[in-house]
Design brief:
The protein is an alpha/beta fold and 325 residues long. The protein is built from eleven helices and twelve strands. The protein starts with a helix and ends with a helix.
């Protein structure tokens, strides 16, 4: 805890002493990444700092209620024509996860790395890493307490969103007493927890359902049904009108089947690459599996990008998971 407290203070000093920030999270940002991005942006705004929030990939539309959602730039659409000396990375397990946005880092940029992934390689000039935190938003909850600022519904909603999504609606094993205490405090600022849970975790889009129908028709098993997987192709995405956001939660279907230790979603990007998402029970550490394949993540939720034809990638990954089991 003493080490974490020291990191919090170093992060506070980094932010207090600088201005003109680039705030970035990982490619194709999820709930925790997007909410952490706007949480840092909100903090900088309260401190009178200038900043630019950017990601490679669009932020899911379902998160449009977040403070300054529309200020998060999609690098693919309109990258800034300049570089930044002061960079704050949130929810990025390694430098590669920032994607093409890394081109906006000035040579020798000072990077504040705020993250909760156990595979984080401490690539920052200043590192604020807590591997047992449920979400990067939980770390930001602690960091913001170090500043003399008045909290509002805007920041409470952002932090709550990160906690809600990365704990699976406070159902995963990372839901600690500290997480629940933070959530309780955030509700006091007016956060409508039940509405956010319904909006983020319960409502389904029609493209999601159509994509799920196709994916489940290919449900396969290995290792005495301890491994279950599905896959989707670019053709599936086009035919259903699905976007990346509609892939959210698909991997849980094979994982939630009784007896399955590892559930996997293979998303074919093109003929040369496949995105692999893995979820596991207590019998497997998918972070180690993903890391061995060039990715990373958490013990129970991790992913990677594997190059090769879809069938070959499936065989390679399944064999690796078998070895781990």
């Amino acid at each position: 805890m003493e080490h974490y407290e020291r990191q919090l203070e170093e992060a506070r000093q980094y932010i207090a002493a600088r201005d003109d920030f680039l705030v970035v999270s990982h490619v194709q940002p999820d709930g925790d990444a997007a909410s952490s991005t706007v949480a840092v942006g909100w903090l900088l705004a309260q401190l009178g700092k200038t900043f630019c929030m950017i990601n490679e990939g669009s932020v899911p539309q379902r998160l449009s209620y977040l403070w300054s959602y529309d200020r998060i730039v999609n690098y693919a659409e309109q990258p800034p024509q300049r570089q930044f000396q002061n960079v704050i990375c949130v929810d990025c397990a390694d430098f590669a996860r920032v994607g093409k946005v890394g081109q906006l880092f000035a040579e020798g940029a000072d990077v504040l790395n705020i993250d909760h992934h156990p595979t984080n390689d401490s690539y920052g000039s200043v590192n604020l890493i807590k591997a047992d935190a449920a979400a990067t938003a939980e770390i930001l909850f602690d960091l913001l307490k170090r500043f003399e600022i008045e909290w509002s519904l805007d920041i409470a909603e952002a932090i709550y969103t990160g906690l809600l999504t990365d704990t699976g609606g406070f159902r995963y094993s990372n839901t600690t007493p500290k997480v629940m205490a933070a959530a309780s405090e955030l509700l006091q600022y007016g956060v409508k927890g039940h509405q956010l849970a319904d909006h983020l975790l319960e409502q389904l889009t029609m493209p999601h359902v159509l994509l799920l129908t196709k994916a489940l028709s290919r449900l396969s098993f290995a290792a005495n049904n301890k491994i279950g997987w599905i896959y989707v192709t670019p053709e599936d995405m086009r035919e259903t009108g699905a976007v990346n956001d509609d892939l959210e939660g698909l991997v849980n279907y094979p994982r939630n089947i009784e007896g399955v230790e590892v559930g996997i979603l293979f998303k074919q990007i093109d003929n040369e690459a496949v995105k692999v998402s893995m979820r596991s029970g207590p019998g497997a550490n998918v972070a180690e599996i993903a890391h061995s394949l060039g990715g990373g993540g958490h013990v129970r939720a991790a992913g990677c990008k594997v190059y090769g034809a879809l069938d070959d990638v499936i065989k390679q990954v399944i064999e690796r998971v078998k070895q781990a089991l």
